[in-house]
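Exercise: predict the fold of this chain.
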Amino acid sequence: MVKNWEKLSTELLADYRIFNIRQDTRRSPRTGNEHGFYVLEAPDWINIIPITPEGNVVFIHQFRHGTERITLEVPGGMVDNTDDDPGEGARREMLEETGYDAERIIHIGTVEPNPAFLDNRCHTYLALNARWVQTPEFDGAEDIAVEEIPLTAVSHLITSGKITHALVICAFYHLEQLSKQQPDFLNFS
């Protein structure tokens, strides 16, 4: 049976504004040996799937520096210290990045992006009856284009490689599971 590893020490190595790097020293419960592990400490993240009354998803296109290309995603970002809960952060990010707001926001799932070396979670929300209400308010490092795409096209966008962001694909998996549990939930007729 797998057991927890005893933490012997922890040391903050660097602070990079959006994440910290720390080194933990832990003892293996199986061998008794000490090992060092690097952990990225990051705030929780959010994704939000805005769906219009017509059944369109509000997507964003933006350049991603890690992959050096433009991606197709749903709005998302970090949960701020000023957010009372992740849902508040989801609404804020949707409004800032797209200019859309919604009548109802529902939490539909949470994942751990990579528990091997990240300590955070990503919360996914669904925004129902999303409507454009204002001009987006990008931060200084954002350049985003907004596009409405029918929800019915999302599966093809994923399988064809147009949507590649793993956490966005997870978000749509959570939506698919909700739709299976409550078949009439997303009725746009």
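Check your answer against the key: Residues 6-41 form one domain.
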